[in-house]
Amino acid sequence: MKMIFNTFAFLMLVSTTIVNANSFTVPQYEKMVLDNGLTVYLLEQHEVPLIDMSVVVKAGAAAEPQRPGVGYLTAQSLMLGTHKLSKSDIEEKLDFIGAQVSVSMNQDAAQMNASFAAKDQAVVMALVRDMLVQPSFDTNEFNKLKTRHQSILSQQKESPQSVITAYFSQLFYQQHPYGLPASGDEVSVAKVELEDVQRFYQTHYVANNSAVVISGDFNSAAMKVRIQALFASWKNKEISPPVFADVSVAKQANVLLVNKADANETTIMIGGQGIPKNAKDAVQLQVINTILGGRFTSWLNDELRVNSGLTYGAGSVFKSQKHAGVFYITTFTKTQTTIETIDLALKTYKKLWSAGIDEATLASAKSYVRGQLPPRYETSGDLVNFLTDMFVYDIDAGFINGFEQAMDELTLKRANELVVNYLPSENLQFVLIGQAEALREQVKKYGEVKEVEITQPGFAL
């Protein structure tokens, strides 16, 4: 299962709500809350005999930032067995009927997704319930999970593109919980014990902190009875949502130079403050980002790849969480052309202010964003993820239903106002992963340089 938590991917999910090319509405669904506080969304559609189900819990990594990795290991531990079945029993049962169940998490939530044939709903839904409500937390399986995860963490820095976002988040967010890696790092994960996982589970995995979302081929009346029977006994408790201080935006430009001595290229990320997930202008900002770096024919890709040949790709993205977000430009190039590439990327970025957006460019980007949205919703899985996002990020139907209006109201004047109001233009933050010896002196012109070895555990400065 893939969680849909970046702005562009969320807009792709919006495609699931289209009725026709010119009408943009959320498909009809039912929402109810059980006596124990569990929120339930039901969306019937009978095109194919399949059902997609998600249980989302507001138990992301930011819920306990003092122990990075404990939330991730808790979510993954749900797959390790129940009071009734072992991990291998679960896998065999799912394989036999061709069903899929998986888990993942980010800073704000953990999610278990299941996809199965409608005829198998009784079996799979009961299994999902047991995995969520009665996990076994088997010691041997947990130790194997932890060892595997540590191995992955120790190897990921071989690929700078796999870890540069973690470095950038740490640089931008500093001590804010969003700055910590959702899956932990080598040091933090080594300290997580099974008791920590069990405590995290008991604290956060409760009915009134969760939602069940089901889309597909079922009868809503019968499904309500089934959900009630399965989940009514899930315990609830008083929940205190984490309270975060506002993100402290840097008052100066900083350069984090991550030394990878054997690198023959530099991986680059440049950016600053972005937007939270439910920002009212998120749809229109996607058009602005499309112009700058959100498609193959964007300004950044044209200049850095097509016209100059400095890289194989360049782009930009808004990466949003519930309470905050970042915006960044990303690319890579040979060590020898690092400065040339950064300078050209900055020059291209500054065109948003110096030259501004013209009518033809805006019209093309609006058509592109609209063209990414098919005239009908695609899969029930997409709809499930859309509804879970509504639950986690406090996004209401108006955010989606107003898509066409937002496109229509995005005038040239409005587009250039969005650039001024939302795109970071001063005190940019830079992360460069490459040969520090070759870059150290040259990159001082971009800001105050801080240097770390990529072999150093974690992503701290």
From TrEMBL:
Residues 1-21 form the signal peptide. Keywords: Signal. It holds the Pfam family Peptidase_M16. Residues 47-183 form the Peptidase M16 N-terminal domain. Gene3D superfamilies: Metalloenzyme, LuxS/M16 peptidase-like. InterPro entries: Metalloenz_LuxS/M16, MPP/UQCRC_Complex, Pept_M16_N, Peptidase_M16_C. This is Peptidase M16. The lineage of its organism: Bacteria, Pseudomonadati, Pseudomonadota, Gammaproteobacteria, Alteromonadales.
